[in-house]
Amino acid sequence: MSLDPEPWTAAVPTGEQRNTNTHPPPANNSGYDPHTGIYRSLVHLPEDGQIPTTHNLDTAKYVISQFPHPDISESKIALIDSSTGRQLTYAQLRRSITSLAAGLRSAIGVQKGDVVLLLSPNSILYPTICLAIMSVGAILTPANPVNTSSEIAKQANDSGAKLVVAAPEQLQKLESIGIPVLTTTRALDYVSCEELIDCCGGGDGSTEPQVSISQSDTAAILYSSGTTGASKGVILTHSNFIAVMTMMKWSVRAMSAEDDTFLCFIPMFHIYGLAFFALGLFTLGIKTVLIPKFDFNLMLQSIETHRVNNIPAVPPVILAMVKFATASGFDLSSLRRVGTGAAPLSGELGVEFRRRFPWVELRPGYGLTESCGATTMFASDEEAKRRPEGCGGLLPRFCAKIVDAETGDALPPYGRGELWVKSPAVMKGYLKNEEATSATIDSDGWLRTGDLCYFDGDGVLFVVDRIKELIKHNGYQVAPAELEAILLTHPQVMDAAVIPVKDAASGEIPMAYVVRASGSVLTEDQVITFVADQVAPYKKVRRVAFIGAIPKSAAGKILRKELILHNQQQLIAKI
User: Is the per-residue pLDDT at 18 higher than 50?
Assistant: First the structure.
Protein backbone atom coordinates (compact mmCIF):
# COMPACT_ATOMS: atom_id res chain seq x y z
CA MET A 1 0.00 0.00 0.00
CA SER A 2 1.32 3.45 -0.90
CA LEU A 3 1.69 5.82 2.01
CA ASP A 4 1.59 8.95 -0.12
CA PRO A 5 -1.49 11.19 0.08
CA GLU A 6 -4.31 10.56 -2.36
CA PRO A 7 -6.98 13.12 -3.35
CA TRP A 8 -10.64 12.46 -2.72
CA THR A 9 -13.89 14.41 -2.72
CA ALA A 10 -16.26 14.95 0.18
CA ALA A 11 -18.55 17.55 1.66
CA VAL A 12 -17.15 20.25 3.96
CA PRO A 13 -18.28 20.04 7.61
CA THR A 14 -20.60 22.72 8.94
CA GLY A 15 -18.91 22.88 12.36
CA GLU A 16 -16.64 21.19 14.87
CA GLN A 17 -18.04 18.55 17.21
CA ARG A 18 -15.02 17.69 19.30
CA ASN A 19 -16.63 15.95 22.23
CA THR A 20 -18.97 13.56 20.49
CA ASN A 21 -18.81 10.69 18.05
CA THR A 22 -21.65 12.19 15.99
CA HIS A 23 -19.50 13.46 13.17
CA PRO A 24 -19.90 16.11 10.52
CA PRO A 25 -18.99 15.00 7.01
CA PRO A 26 -15.20 14.91 6.69
CA ALA A 27 -13.49 17.83 4.96
CA ASN A 28 -11.47 17.08 1.86
CA ASN A 29 -8.47 18.91 3.30
CA SER A 30 -8.22 16.57 6.28
CA GLY A 31 -6.45 13.82 4.36
CA TYR A 32 -9.24 11.41 5.38
CA ASP A 33 -10.51 8.79 2.93
CA PRO A 34 -14.05 7.72 3.93
CA HIS A 35 -13.77 4.54 1.88
CA THR A 36 -10.76 3.19 3.82
CA GLY A 37 -11.00 5.14 7.07
CA ILE A 38 -7.36 6.20 6.61
CA TYR A 39 -5.85 9.65 7.10
CA ARG A 40 -2.88 10.37 4.86
CA SER A 41 -0.20 13.01 5.12
CA LEU A 42 -1.03 16.18 3.21
CA VAL A 43 2.68 16.77 2.57
CA HIS A 44 4.55 15.43 -0.45
CA LEU A 45 8.31 15.12 -0.11
CA PRO A 46 10.21 16.85 -2.93
CA GLU A 47 12.28 14.75 -5.32
CA ASP A 48 15.45 15.41 -3.31
CA GLY A 49 13.67 14.44 -0.11
CA GLN A 50 12.62 10.90 -0.95
CA ILE A 51 13.62 8.19 1.51
CA PRO A 52 16.68 6.31 0.16
CA THR A 53 15.93 2.71 -0.75
CA THR A 54 19.54 1.52 -1.16
CA HIS A 55 19.63 -1.86 0.55
CA ASN A 56 23.13 -1.67 2.06
CA LEU A 57 22.77 1.84 3.49
CA ASP A 58 23.17 2.15 7.26
CA THR A 59 22.40 5.04 9.59
CA ALA A 60 26.00 6.20 10.05
CA LYS A 61 26.80 6.03 6.34
CA TYR A 62 23.67 8.05 5.56
CA VAL A 63 24.41 10.70 8.18
CA ILE A 64 28.03 11.13 7.14
CA SER A 65 27.05 11.31 3.46
CA GLN A 66 24.98 14.40 4.27
CA PHE A 67 27.80 16.30 6.01
CA PRO A 68 28.78 19.69 4.52
CA HIS A 69 31.15 19.60 1.56
CA PRO A 70 34.76 18.83 2.57
CA ASP A 71 35.77 22.36 1.53
CA ILE A 72 33.78 23.80 4.45
CA SER A 73 33.71 20.83 6.85
CA GLU A 74 37.04 21.84 8.42
CA SER A 75 35.60 25.15 9.62
CA LYS A 76 31.89 24.35 9.95
CA ILE A 77 31.03 23.87 13.64
CA ALA A 78 28.92 20.80 14.41
CA LEU A 79 28.93 20.78 18.23
CA ILE A 80 29.74 23.10 21.12
CA ASP A 81 29.92 21.95 24.73
CA SER A 82 28.25 24.71 26.75
CA SER A 83 30.05 23.78 29.97
CA THR A 84 33.60 23.66 28.58
CA GLY A 85 33.38 25.71 25.39
CA ARG A 86 34.97 22.84 23.45
CA GLN A 87 34.01 22.76 19.76
CA LEU A 88 33.92 20.03 17.13
CA THR A 89 33.84 20.71 13.41
CA TYR A 90 32.14 18.43 10.92
CA ALA A 91 35.54 17.28 9.66
CA GLN A 92 36.64 16.42 13.20
CA LEU A 93 33.34 14.66 13.85
CA ARG A 94 33.79 12.50 10.77
CA ARG A 95 37.33 11.55 11.72
CA SER A 96 36.24 10.75 15.27
CA ILE A 97 33.44 8.48 14.08
CA THR A 98 35.53 6.50 11.62
CA SER A 99 38.51 6.22 14.00
CA LEU A 100 36.41 5.06 16.94
CA ALA A 101 34.57 2.62 14.69
CA ALA A 102 37.89 1.12 13.60
CA GLY A 103 39.03 0.93 17.21
CA LEU A 104 35.83 -0.72 18.39
CA ARG A 105 36.21 -3.37 15.74
CA SER A 106 39.95 -4.02 15.78
CA ALA A 107 41.01 -3.20 19.35
CA ILE A 108 37.85 -4.14 21.26
CA GLY A 109 36.50 -6.82 18.93
CA VAL A 110 32.98 -5.43 18.53
CA GLN A 111 31.25 -7.29 15.71
CA LYS A 112 28.09 -6.92 13.70
CA GLY A 113 25.06 -7.75 15.85
CA ASP A 114 26.81 -7.12 19.17
CA VAL A 115 24.83 -4.91 21.54
CA VAL A 116 26.67 -1.96 23.11
CA LEU A 117 25.09 -0.21 26.08
CA LEU A 118 25.81 3.52 26.28
CA LEU A 119 25.49 5.07 29.76
CA SER A 120 26.32 8.76 29.71
CA PRO A 121 24.80 12.22 29.98
CA ASN A 122 24.85 14.41 26.90
CA SER A 123 28.39 15.13 25.76
CA ILE A 124 30.24 16.28 22.69
CA LEU A 125 31.40 12.66 22.28
CA TYR A 126 27.92 11.11 22.48
CA PRO A 127 27.05 11.38 18.74
CA THR A 128 30.48 10.00 17.83
CA ILE A 129 29.90 6.92 20.00
CA CYS A 130 26.39 6.33 18.60
CA LEU A 131 27.45 6.63 14.97
CA ALA A 132 30.63 4.59 15.47
CA ILE A 133 28.65 1.74 17.05
CA MET A 134 26.13 1.75 14.21
CA SER A 135 28.79 1.98 11.52
CA VAL A 136 30.34 -1.37 12.54
CA GLY A 137 26.93 -3.05 12.46
CA ALA A 138 26.66 -3.21 16.25
CA ILE A 139 23.44 -2.34 18.04
CA LEU A 140 23.17 0.70 20.28
CA THR A 141 21.12 0.53 23.50
CA PRO A 142 21.31 3.89 25.30
CA ALA A 143 20.49 3.98 29.02
CA ASN A 144 19.32 6.70 31.36
CA PRO A 145 22.29 7.82 33.54
CA VAL A 146 19.96 8.36 36.52
CA ASN A 147 18.96 4.69 36.49
CA THR A 148 20.00 2.54 39.43
CA SER A 149 22.52 -0.30 39.23
CA SER A 150 19.73 -2.87 39.13
CA GLU A 151 17.87 -1.03 36.34
CA ILE A 152 21.04 -0.79 34.27
CA ALA A 153 21.82 -4.47 34.88
CA LYS A 154 18.30 -5.37 33.80
CA GLN A 155 18.65 -3.44 30.53
CA ALA A 156 22.09 -4.91 29.87
CA ASN A 157 20.80 -8.43 30.48
CA ASP A 158 17.58 -8.00 28.50
CA SER A 159 19.35 -6.45 25.51
CA GLY A 160 22.22 -8.95 25.60
CA ALA A 161 24.87 -6.21 25.82
CA LYS A 162 28.46 -7.33 25.16
CA LEU A 163 30.10 -4.00 26.01
CA VAL A 164 29.27 -0.91 28.09
CA VAL A 165 30.46 2.56 27.14
CA ALA A 166 30.05 4.74 30.22
CA ALA A 167 30.91 8.12 31.67
CA PRO A 168 33.42 7.76 34.55
CA GLU A 169 30.91 8.87 37.18
CA GLN A 170 28.74 5.89 36.24
CA LEU A 171 31.40 3.25 36.93
CA GLN A 172 30.22 2.46 40.46
CA LYS A 173 26.88 1.29 39.02
CA LEU A 174 28.67 -1.22 36.80
CA GLU A 175 30.86 -3.01 39.33
CA SER A 176 28.78 -6.19 39.37
CA ILE A 177 27.45 -6.13 35.84
CA GLY A 178 30.01 -8.59 34.49
CA ILE A 179 30.45 -6.86 31.11
CA PRO A 180 33.58 -5.09 29.77
CA VAL A 181 33.44 -1.31 30.27
CA LEU A 182 34.88 1.45 28.10
CA THR A 183 34.84 4.96 29.60
CA THR A 184 34.17 8.16 27.70
CA THR A 185 37.12 9.99 29.28
CA ARG A 186 40.43 8.96 30.82
CA ALA A 187 39.96 6.83 33.93
CA LEU A 188 42.38 4.65 35.89
CA ASP A 189 42.59 1.04 34.65
CA TYR A 190 40.20 1.70 31.77
CA VAL A 191 40.75 2.49 28.11
CA SER A 192 38.98 5.72 27.25
CA CYS A 193 37.09 6.47 24.03
CA GLU A 194 39.20 9.56 23.46
CA GLU A 195 42.38 7.52 23.81
CA LEU A 196 40.92 4.97 21.43
CA ILE A 197 40.14 7.67 18.86
CA ASP A 198 43.71 8.92 19.14
CA CYS A 199 45.43 5.57 18.77
CA CYS A 200 43.14 3.52 16.52
CA GLY A 201 42.16 3.80 12.90
CA GLY A 202 45.14 5.90 11.93
CA GLY A 203 43.72 8.98 13.66
CA ASP A 204 42.65 10.65 10.41
CA GLY A 205 39.45 8.74 9.84
CA SER A 206 40.78 7.19 6.65
CA THR A 207 40.22 3.61 7.75
CA GLU A 208 36.56 2.63 7.69
CA PRO A 209 35.56 -0.84 8.88
CA GLN A 210 34.29 -3.04 6.08
CA VAL A 211 31.07 -4.65 7.20
CA SER A 212 27.89 -5.47 5.30
CA ILE A 213 24.91 -3.70 6.89
CA SER A 214 21.43 -3.57 5.41
CA GLN A 215 18.62 -1.14 6.16
CA SER A 216 16.60 -3.98 7.68
CA ASP A 217 19.27 -4.70 10.31
CA THR A 218 18.68 -3.57 13.88
CA ALA A 219 20.37 -0.24 14.65
CA ALA A 220 19.23 0.40 18.21
CA ILE A 221 17.18 -0.97 21.08
CA LEU A 222 15.55 1.78 23.12
CA TYR A 223 13.69 1.15 26.31
CA SER A 224 10.34 2.85 26.77
CA SER A 225 9.89 4.95 29.90
CA GLY A 226 7.42 2.46 31.35
CA THR A 227 5.07 5.17 32.63
CA THR A 228 2.13 2.75 32.78
CA GLY A 229 3.89 -0.62 32.94
CA ALA A 230 7.16 -2.48 32.60
CA SER A 231 9.73 -0.98 30.25
CA LYS A 232 10.10 -2.83 26.93
CA GLY A 233 12.95 -2.92 24.43
CA VAL A 234 11.91 -1.17 21.20
CA ILE A 235 13.74 -2.55 18.15
CA LEU A 236 14.56 0.19 15.64
CA THR A 237 16.23 -0.58 12.31
CA HIS A 238 18.56 1.47 10.14
CA SER A 239 15.60 1.91 7.82
CA ASN A 240 13.56 3.43 10.65
CA PHE A 241 16.24 6.03 11.42
CA ILE A 242 16.92 6.84 7.77
CA ALA A 243 13.19 7.38 7.18
CA VAL A 244 12.90 9.70 10.19
CA MET A 245 16.01 11.67 9.27
CA THR A 246 14.72 12.16 5.73
CA MET A 247 11.46 13.57 7.11
CA MET A 248 13.44 15.68 9.57
CA LYS A 249 15.51 17.17 6.77
CA TRP A 250 12.30 18.26 5.08
CA SER A 251 10.73 19.72 8.22
CA VAL A 252 13.79 21.48 9.67
CA ARG A 253 14.88 22.81 6.29
CA ALA A 254 11.41 24.31 5.82
CA MET A 255 11.70 26.21 9.11
CA SER A 256 15.40 26.96 9.65
CA ALA A 257 18.48 28.33 7.97
CA GLU A 258 21.84 26.58 7.66
CA ASP A 259 23.44 29.10 10.02
CA ASP A 260 20.86 28.47 12.76
CA THR A 261 22.03 27.35 16.19
CA PHE A 262 20.12 24.67 18.09
CA LEU A 263 20.31 24.02 21.81
CA CYS A 264 20.29 20.43 23.09
CA PHE A 265 19.30 19.62 26.64
CA ILE A 266 16.95 16.79 25.66
CA PRO A 267 18.70 13.60 26.84
CA MET A 268 20.27 11.79 23.91
CA PHE A 269 19.40 8.38 25.35
CA HIS A 270 15.74 9.25 24.64
CA ILE A 271 14.41 8.81 21.09
CA TYR A 272 13.70 12.55 20.88
CA GLY A 273 17.32 13.44 21.62
CA LEU A 274 18.85 10.50 19.77
CA ALA A 275 17.01 10.93 16.48
CA PHE A 276 17.18 14.72 16.52
CA PHE A 277 20.50 15.70 18.07
CA ALA A 278 22.77 12.62 18.04
CA LEU A 279 21.87 11.82 14.43
CA GLY A 280 19.42 13.92 12.44
CA LEU A 281 20.63 17.51 12.66
CA PHE A 282 24.02 16.55 11.23
CA THR A 283 22.31 15.78 7.92
CA LEU A 284 21.53 19.51 7.66
CA GLY A 285 24.91 20.93 8.66
CA ILE A 286 23.38 22.53 11.75
CA LYS A 287 25.39 23.85 14.72
CA THR A 288 24.28 22.41 18.07
CA VAL A 289 25.12 23.67 21.56
CA LEU A 290 25.08 20.86 24.15
CA ILE A 291 24.11 20.96 27.80
CA PRO A 292 25.15 17.79 29.69
CA LYS A 293 21.90 17.70 31.63
CA PHE A 294 19.02 20.11 31.92
CA ASP A 295 19.62 23.17 34.04
CA PHE A 296 17.14 26.01 33.57
CA ASN A 297 19.55 28.89 34.21
CA LEU A 298 22.24 27.27 32.07
CA MET A 299 19.68 26.90 29.29
CA LEU A 300 18.84 30.62 29.44
CA GLN A 301 22.52 31.55 29.67
CA SER A 302 23.35 29.37 26.66
CA ILE A 303 20.60 31.01 24.60
CA GLU A 304 22.10 34.41 25.37
CA THR A 305 25.79 33.44 24.98
CA HIS A 306 25.47 31.43 21.75
CA ARG A 307 22.55 33.37 20.25
CA VAL A 308 20.49 30.20 20.02
CA ASN A 309 17.61 30.26 17.53
CA ASN A 310 15.92 26.90 18.05
CA ILE A 311 15.05 24.79 21.08
CA PRO A 312 13.42 21.37 20.81
CA ALA A 313 11.90 21.13 24.30
CA VAL A 314 9.38 19.28 26.45
CA PRO A 315 6.30 20.68 28.27
CA PRO A 316 8.01 21.09 31.70
CA VAL A 317 10.54 23.41 30.04
CA ILE A 318 7.74 25.41 28.40
CA LEU A 319 6.08 25.69 31.82
CA ALA A 320 9.31 26.87 33.44
CA MET A 321 9.81 29.51 30.75
CA VAL A 322 6.29 30.81 31.29
CA LYS A 323 6.71 30.93 35.07
CA PHE A 324 10.26 32.24 35.37
CA ALA A 325 12.06 33.19 32.14
CA THR A 326 10.76 36.73 31.71
CA ALA A 327 12.06 37.68 35.16
CA SER A 328 15.46 36.02 34.65
CA GLY A 329 17.20 38.99 33.06
CA PHE A 330 18.71 36.88 30.24
CA ASP A 331 18.58 38.14 26.67
CA LEU A 332 16.38 35.68 24.74
CA SER A 333 15.87 37.88 21.68
CA SER A 334 17.75 35.47 19.39
CA LEU A 335 15.20 32.73 20.01
CA ARG A 336 12.93 32.19 17.03
CA ARG A 337 11.39 28.78 17.48
CA VAL A 338 10.57 26.33 20.27
CA GLY A 339 9.38 22.84 19.45
CA THR A 340 7.77 20.58 21.99
CA GLY A 341 6.99 16.89 22.14
CA ALA A 342 7.40 13.69 24.21
CA ALA A 343 4.45 14.65 26.46
CA PRO A 344 1.17 16.57 25.99
CA LEU A 345 1.28 20.39 25.95
CA SER A 346 -1.94 21.97 27.14
CA GLY A 347 -3.58 24.61 24.97
CA GLU A 348 -3.67 27.02 27.91
CA LEU A 349 0.06 26.72 28.47
CA GLY A 350 0.72 27.21 24.76
CA VAL A 351 -1.38 30.38 24.66
CA GLU A 352 0.38 31.78 27.74
CA PHE A 353 3.81 31.00 26.22
CA ARG A 354 2.90 32.94 23.08
CA ARG A 355 1.68 35.86 25.17
CA ARG A 356 4.97 36.08 27.06
CA PHE A 357 7.21 35.38 24.04
CA PRO A 358 5.31 36.84 21.06
CA TRP A 359 8.36 36.78 18.79
CA VAL A 360 8.91 33.03 19.26
CA GLU A 361 7.16 30.36 17.22
CA LEU A 362 5.82 27.43 19.23
CA ARG A 363 5.56 24.16 17.31
CA PRO A 364 4.00 21.23 19.20
CA GLY A 365 4.42 17.79 17.68
CA TYR A 366 3.65 14.17 18.45
CA GLY A 367 5.71 11.02 18.30
CA LEU A 368 6.66 7.96 20.29
CA THR A 369 9.62 5.65 20.65
CA GLU A 370 7.82 3.00 18.61
CA SER A 371 7.58 5.39 15.64
CA CYS A 372 11.22 6.49 15.98
CA GLY A 373 10.12 9.75 17.58
CA ALA A 374 8.01 11.09 14.74
CA THR A 375 4.37 11.23 13.63
CA THR A 376 2.98 14.78 13.39
CA MET A 377 4.12 18.41 13.40
CA PHE A 378 2.84 21.84 12.45
CA ALA A 379 4.10 23.04 9.09
CA SER A 380 3.63 26.71 10.01
CA ASP A 381 3.34 28.87 13.10
CA GLU A 382 0.04 30.27 11.91
CA GLU A 383 -1.48 26.79 11.89
CA ALA A 384 -0.16 26.17 15.40
CA LYS A 385 -1.61 29.47 16.67
CA ARG A 386 -5.07 28.59 15.39
CA ARG A 387 -5.00 25.23 17.18
CA PRO A 388 -3.10 25.66 20.47
CA GLU A 389 -4.21 22.22 21.68
CA GLY A 390 -3.22 20.43 18.48
CA CYS A 391 -0.08 18.48 17.54
CA GLY A 392 0.08 19.25 13.83
CA GLY A 393 -0.54 17.16 10.75
CA LEU A 394 0.91 13.83 9.70
CA LEU A 395 4.51 13.90 8.55
CA PRO A 396 5.32 12.70 5.03
CA ARG A 397 5.06 8.92 4.60
CA PHE A 398 2.81 8.59 7.65
CA CYS A 399 -0.81 7.51 7.54
CA ALA A 400 -3.19 6.98 10.43
CA LYS A 401 -6.53 5.69 11.62
CA ILE A 402 -8.68 6.63 14.60
CA VAL A 403 -10.20 3.37 15.82
CA ASP A 404 -13.27 3.08 18.03
CA ALA A 405 -12.36 0.77 20.92
CA GLU A 406 -15.81 -0.82 21.12
CA THR A 407 -16.69 -1.31 17.45
CA GLY A 408 -13.25 -1.41 15.82
CA ASP A 409 -14.52 1.09 13.24
CA ALA A 410 -12.20 3.70 11.74
CA LEU A 411 -13.59 7.12 12.64
CA PRO A 412 -13.82 10.29 10.51
CA PRO A 413 -12.71 13.76 11.66
CA TYR A 414 -13.68 14.71 15.22
CA GLY A 415 -14.32 11.09 16.20
CA ARG A 416 -12.37 10.07 19.30
CA GLY A 417 -10.61 6.74 19.40
CA GLU A 418 -7.22 5.08 19.57
CA LEU A 419 -4.63 6.43 17.16
CA TRP A 420 -3.11 3.81 14.84
CA VAL A 421 -0.21 4.78 12.57
CA LYS A 422 1.73 3.21 9.73
CA SER A 423 5.05 4.42 8.35
CA PRO A 424 8.55 3.29 7.35
CA ALA A 425 9.56 4.75 10.73
CA VAL A 426 7.49 2.27 12.77
CA MET A 427 9.55 -0.11 14.90
CA LYS A 428 10.31 -3.71 14.03
CA GLY A 429 8.80 -4.87 17.34
CA TYR A 430 9.55 -5.38 21.03
CA LEU A 431 12.67 -7.32 21.93
CA LYS A 432 11.98 -10.93 22.96
CA ASN A 433 8.31 -10.10 23.51
CA GLU A 434 6.15 -11.50 20.73
CA GLU A 435 2.99 -11.13 22.81
CA ALA A 436 3.51 -7.40 23.30
CA THR A 437 4.55 -6.98 19.66
CA SER A 438 1.43 -8.68 18.29
CA ALA A 439 -0.73 -6.67 20.70
CA THR A 440 0.83 -3.44 19.40
CA ILE A 441 1.38 -4.05 15.68
CA ASP A 442 -1.33 -5.81 13.69
CA SER A 443 -0.81 -8.10 10.70
CA ASP A 444 -1.09 -5.16 8.28
CA GLY A 445 1.63 -3.17 10.03
CA TRP A 446 -0.58 -0.72 11.94
CA LEU A 447 0.94 0.45 15.22
CA ARG A 448 -1.58 0.87 18.03
CA THR A 449 -0.31 3.88 19.95
CA GLY A 450 -2.47 3.53 23.07
CA ASP A 451 -3.36 7.23 22.82
CA LEU A 452 -6.91 8.57 22.72
CA CYS A 453 -6.95 11.07 19.85
CA TYR A 454 -8.93 12.70 17.07
CA PHE A 455 -8.22 14.60 13.84
CA ASP A 456 -10.02 17.81 12.99
CA GLY A 457 -11.32 18.79 9.57
CA ASP A 458 -7.90 20.01 8.47
CA GLY A 459 -6.02 16.87 9.42
CA VAL A 460 -4.57 18.25 12.67
CA LEU A 461 -4.11 15.67 15.42
CA PHE A 462 -5.39 16.27 18.94
CA VAL A 463 -4.21 13.99 21.76
CA VAL A 464 -6.73 13.61 24.59
CA ASP A 465 -4.75 11.29 26.87
CA ARG A 466 -3.24 7.85 27.24
CA ILE A 467 -6.07 5.31 27.07
CA LYS A 468 -4.62 3.32 29.96
CA GLU A 469 -4.49 6.48 32.08
CA LEU A 470 -8.12 7.50 31.61
CA ILE A 471 -9.96 7.60 34.93
CA LYS A 472 -13.24 5.66 34.93
CA HIS A 473 -15.69 7.55 37.16
CA ASN A 474 -19.29 6.31 37.27
CA GLY A 475 -18.93 5.01 33.72
CA TYR A 476 -17.51 8.29 32.41
CA GLN A 477 -13.97 8.68 31.12
CA VAL A 478 -11.94 11.48 32.69
CA ALA A 479 -8.66 12.55 31.04
CA PRO A 480 -5.96 13.46 33.60
CA ALA A 481 -4.24 15.72 31.07
CA GLU A 482 -7.35 17.91 30.81
CA LEU A 483 -7.47 18.44 34.58
CA GLU A 484 -3.70 19.03 34.76
CA ALA A 485 -3.99 21.74 32.12
CA ILE A 486 -6.63 23.51 34.20
CA LEU A 487 -4.59 23.21 37.39
CA LEU A 488 -1.53 24.76 35.74
CA THR A 489 -3.51 27.92 34.99
CA HIS A 490 -3.79 28.65 38.72
CA PRO A 491 -1.22 31.35 39.62
CA GLN A 492 -0.20 29.52 42.80
CA VAL A 493 0.27 26.12 41.13
CA MET A 494 3.76 25.46 39.79
CA ASP A 495 3.10 21.91 38.63
CA ALA A 496 0.41 19.26 38.93
CA ALA A 497 -0.49 15.66 38.15
CA VAL A 498 -3.78 13.77 38.36
CA ILE A 499 -4.12 10.07 39.15
CA PRO A 500 -6.98 7.60 39.63
CA VAL A 501 -7.88 6.48 43.15
CA LYS A 502 -10.13 3.48 43.70
CA ASP A 503 -13.55 4.30 45.09
CA ALA A 504 -16.18 1.79 46.19
CA ALA A 505 -19.12 3.92 45.04
CA SER A 506 -17.92 5.29 41.70
CA GLY A 507 -15.08 2.98 40.64
CA GLU A 508 -12.38 5.65 40.50
CA ILE A 509 -12.06 9.30 41.46
CA PRO A 510 -9.56 11.90 40.21
CA MET A 511 -6.93 12.91 42.75
CA ALA A 512 -4.54 15.81 42.16
CA TYR A 513 -0.94 16.12 43.32
CA VAL A 514 -0.02 19.80 43.37
CA VAL A 515 3.27 21.68 43.68
CA ARG A 516 2.52 25.04 45.29
CA ALA A 517 4.39 28.24 44.51
CA SER A 518 6.89 29.38 47.12
CA GLY A 519 5.07 30.98 50.03
CA SER A 520 1.65 29.84 48.85
CA VAL A 521 -0.94 28.70 51.39
CA LEU A 522 -3.25 27.22 48.78
CA THR A 523 -5.62 24.68 50.36
CA GLU A 524 -7.19 21.44 49.18
CA ASP A 525 -10.67 23.00 49.15
CA GLN A 526 -9.47 25.92 47.05
CA VAL A 527 -7.95 23.58 44.48
CA ILE A 528 -11.08 21.44 44.31
CA THR A 529 -13.28 24.51 43.86
CA PHE A 530 -10.99 26.00 41.23
CA VAL A 531 -11.28 22.89 39.05
CA ALA A 532 -14.98 22.28 39.78
CA ASP A 533 -15.88 25.72 38.45
CA GLN A 534 -14.46 24.79 35.04
CA VAL A 535 -15.50 21.17 34.39
CA ALA A 536 -18.52 18.90 34.30
CA PRO A 537 -19.43 17.38 37.69
CA TYR A 538 -18.06 13.92 36.84
CA LYS A 539 -14.63 15.41 36.07
CA LYS A 540 -14.19 17.18 39.40
CA VAL A 541 -11.03 16.58 41.42
CA ARG A 542 -12.15 14.86 44.63
CA ARG A 543 -8.88 14.80 46.59
CA VAL A 544 -5.71 16.90 46.63
CA ALA A 545 -2.25 16.27 48.05
CA PHE A 546 0.62 18.76 48.04
CA ILE A 547 4.06 17.57 47.02
CA GLY A 548 7.54 19.04 46.50
CA ALA A 549 7.96 17.86 42.90
CA ILE A 550 6.02 15.82 40.35
CA PRO A 551 7.99 12.69 39.36
CA LYS A 552 8.71 12.73 35.65
CA SER A 553 10.71 10.79 33.10
CA ALA A 554 13.69 12.40 31.40
CA ALA A 555 11.38 13.27 28.51
CA GLY A 556 8.98 15.13 30.80
CA LYS A 557 6.26 12.49 31.04
CA ILE A 558 4.49 12.31 34.38
CA LEU A 559 5.30 9.04 36.14
CA ARG A 560 1.79 8.40 37.41
CA LYS A 561 2.60 4.92 38.61
CA GLU A 562 4.99 6.44 41.16
CA LEU A 563 2.27 8.77 42.43
CA ILE A 564 -0.22 5.91 42.56
CA LEU A 565 2.27 3.87 44.60
CA HIS A 566 2.93 6.87 46.85
CA ASN A 567 -0.79 7.28 47.49
CA GLN A 568 -1.18 3.59 48.26
CA GLN A 569 1.69 3.74 50.74
CA GLN A 570 0.13 6.77 52.42
CA LEU A 571 -3.15 4.90 52.80
CA ILE A 572 -1.40 1.85 54.28
CA ALA A 573 0.47 4.06 56.74
CA LYS A 574 -2.83 5.43 58.04
CA ILE A 575 -4.26 1.97 58.75
Answer: no
